[in-house]
Write the structure tokens for this entry.
Amino acid sequence: MKNNELLTQAIRAKKQAYAPYSKFPVGAALLTTSGKIYTGCNIENASYSLTCCAERIAIFKAIAAGERNFTEMAVVANSKRPVPPCGACRQVMSEFFEPTMVIYLANAQHQLITMTMEDLLPFSFDASDVTK
Ligand code: THU
């Protein structure tokens, strides 16, 4: 898939953000190996720590729909630089994404950085570390 389509969907998802506190809307779009796209936006809460990021919403929607295999993700925000996913999202991403999976990070000025999962979270804590 062209990253354009994924970025377009992420920009569209950003419009659905519920971000009355930070006023920092974020959109994400996740492509499955079967070609389906799942989108997410950040959803904030008056109890701030209950906020969930756009990336995790997209991943959780896909997982809850039975998806397990992903090829690309795009994340967009109105940030000065292409938006860096937070640490919590990187850990959730690493649970489901291969180290080689490509993630597009962008901002509203169409600046784009392409990274792999391994770039975003090297030496990650994973299932093999939990095994006794
Ligand atoms: N946020 C995301 O949704 N994704 C990111 O990659 C960075 C941060 C959200 C969480 C919160 O609603 C707002 O941006 C400000 O931190």
Remarks:
- DSSP finds five helices and five strands in the chain.
- The CA atoms of residues 95 and 126 lie 7 Å apart.
